[in-house]
Amino acid sequence: MSTTPTALRDERTLRGLAAEGATALRAALDAEGRVPAAGEASTEEAIRWVAEHFDPAKVAVACSMADAVLPALVAEHLPGVDVLFLETGYHFPETIGTRDAVAHMLDITVVDVLPELTVAEQDATIGTDLFATDPARCCAIRKMDPLKQALSGYEVWFTGVRRDESWTRTNAPMVAFDETHGLVKVNPMVRWSLDDLLGWSQEHGVPVNPLMSEGYPSIGCAPCTRPVTPGEDPRAGRWAGKDKTECGIHL
Is residue 247 among the annotated active site residues? Predict the structure, then answer.
């Protein structure tokens, strides 16, 4: 028996839910803009809060396929959840292989989010290797714009943002209203470390991108990602040598 999908709730309602979630999970910043050192909800509590307050059909998980910990955790409470993979056309073969393994092993639905232009079309219309001449524009075309369009069909999205990744993410909240995309954003793994992530993956047999063990703790497009050296933050290998630290999705 088919059912008619319900409409997305309006922005005011979603803002209210984000505020309620921040209070319930005690993830709001304090008066000085700092993340509380203690008293924050667990990853499971954050995921369960979403499962209790949102239609599963309106929940998305963003995953770069560096690992599959977040999709695995969310799928425990929201089986079949949509997992958005930004298929930029520039991924490492290992990343595509991880995506395929994750789609096969977990109770999720992988959704390839595609740019309007193929790489060949972009080269022909804008210029060859835009990632080298204007990486911000390349990210906008191949990642930010497609994601914004994809998220327009959801009320809430999960991301794997962690506070230990770089200085730009130090104060990432567990839940907030996403002003850029107009929906609730939940970062249930903000307090995890890279070691926590890898340990959980190994313990639970969840796929990890092979590049993670080759010096790539943060994996993006192949032309714009290099291995990191000891002592560098996990995202130091992204857009190395350029005045760029984020693609723009999480700013």
Answer: yes
